[in-house]
Amino acid sequence: MLAARPERPRDTVRSSSARVFRLLDAFNSAAKGLSLTEMSRRSGLPLTTVHRFAHELRRLGVLECDPDGHYRIGLRLWEIAAHSPRGVGLREAAMPFLEDLYEATHENVQLAVRDAHDVVYIEHIAGRRAVGVRTQVGLRFPLHATGVGLVLLAFADEALQDEVMNAPLAGFTPKTIQDPSLLRRKLADVRQQGFAVSDRQVTMDALSVAAPIRDAEDAVVAAVSLVVTANVSPTAIAPAVVAAGRGISRVLRNAGMVLER
Amino acid sequence: MLAARPERPRDTVRSSSARVFRLLDAFNSAAKGLSLTEMSRRSGLPLTTVHRFAHELRRLGVLECDPDGHYRIGLRLWEIAAHSPRGVGLREAAMPFLEDLYEATHENVQLAVRDAHDVVYIEHIAGRRAVGVRTQVGLRFPLHATGVGLVLLAFADEALQDEVMNAPLAGFTPKTIQDPSLLRRKLADVRQQGFAVSDRQVTMDALSVAAPIRDAEDAVVAAVSLVVTANVSPTAIAPAVVAAGRGISRVLRNAGMVLER
DNA sequence: GGCGCTCTTCCGTTAGGCGGAAGGGTGAAT
DNA sequence: ATTCACCCTTCCGCCTAACGGAAGAGCGCC
């Protein structure tokens, strides 16, 4: 008699952990803290569920809550994340070299890894004087446009390269490579030269030079780059960037760090 | 007939989220990745439960797993943590100033917040030439010994100060303050001077000078410090540290950041 | 081949999760 | 004062997803 169908799996996984992390994901691009209702809206979880989770997570220190009921990502989560090899582990190894690079140039220094089809920025150093760049720790960006992305793509599996080529390549400026065969040739150049140049492919006022970072098993697991104003010669700064990449790779090798997936 | 008692709450909370984070906590002080069995042992959760969680968390990207079955904290968790105001948010605001401090001195620069009775290091910059310090991003340390700790304690609630005083004060060197009344006087000095000096209280070869960082509501929410060899004069470096603290506070104020708990 | 180790699958039980509904609190608009 | 709009909180019955012991599979090692 017209019983409503079970109608189970709306579109979502019904495990408890998946819900918790769906809730936590609601905090990306949340400048300020979120109220319970906002969390509910962003995550698509029922308010009651959010209420239950939020209180529990607060009790655990995973979320923090200011007096007027706005929740934020808490220090506890940050501490757990500090044990992430590809995040903080890599950063610790790389920092002295990024430091030197910054001090020598006073330009934007960036450290990034790949996740799926994105670059994820792990660290960046920028003085107040350097060219304005919109990168931020934790930010994602498509692989084909940036210097670090080109490096990470050039040394990735062919399967992954194909996937990226077959998807539409977003354009940011007139100089962004959007043609797959052009990109393929570019990647070959990167592999041969040992560094990548992204010339005004993200903004028209900046170019970046990036070099690979290898782990203890010699796999390219990260990239370091220098972003400078577009009038600087890439070949002038490439040696320093490549040297930094080598230095960081050496530290990873000596520490026996393996960061492959 | 002799039914075994329910015997419910061994010592642990039985919520799903609490278990997940108990599992994730198993990763602290885990240099390398953990196997399922190791996770089970460290967390005290039954192997089957760990098995279920680990697979689910891996599916979610919260954990990563290398081919031989060793799990690590994944990039997804790190990305979520990148939205933590007291972690990455603070770091972003402070970085240029830490940078300047480092460049001017080439000594160890540290940024820390307080959590309960501990200092938690959010950032540190150390060249290869600086005095060896064992701090690390994400590390905890007692409040009463370090420079940053003294600052954070000096400007904390009286209630919290009392709690710290009433607990035994761990000693690290002969110069570590372990007497509550001495500590109380020290804290008064810190408040009056506007900076703290920890002279050989952690190791006999180093001293640190720390200054407070205030958020948009003028609450002391963090501290910045410089750790140098014990023969450097604290008063010589204090102005630079205090200036950095002021600079960072200004950025927080302009950004309207409120980091009180 | 037996032993110790770890990972995986199975499955019956149940407690913890779920979320609609209703209640309370606050502030702004009328 | 009354209404409205929001947001947070509590309650409670249903039920499913989580639980974990037990047994089995894979893998070196002595």
How would you describe the overall organization of this protein?
The structure is a homodimer of 261-residue chains. In chain A, 43% of the residues lie in helices and 18% in strands. Chain A has 261 residues and is of the alpha+beta class. The first copy, chain A, has 2 domains: 16-80, Arc Repressor Mutant, subunit A; 85-255, GAF domain (Beta-Lactamase, 2-Layer Sandwich). In chain A, the strands form 2 sheets. Chain A has a 6-stranded antiparallel β-sheet, sandwiched between helices. In chain A, strands 1-2 form a two-stranded antiparallel ribbon. The interface between A and B is large, with 57 and 57 residues. Chain B binds a DNA duplex (30 and 30 nucleotides) through helix 3.
List keywords for this structure.
homodimer, 261 residues, alpha+beta, Arc Repressor Mutant, subunit A, Beta-Lactamase, 2 domains, 6-stranded antiparallel sheet, two-stranded antiparallel ribbon, 8 strands, 18% strand, globular, DNA-binding
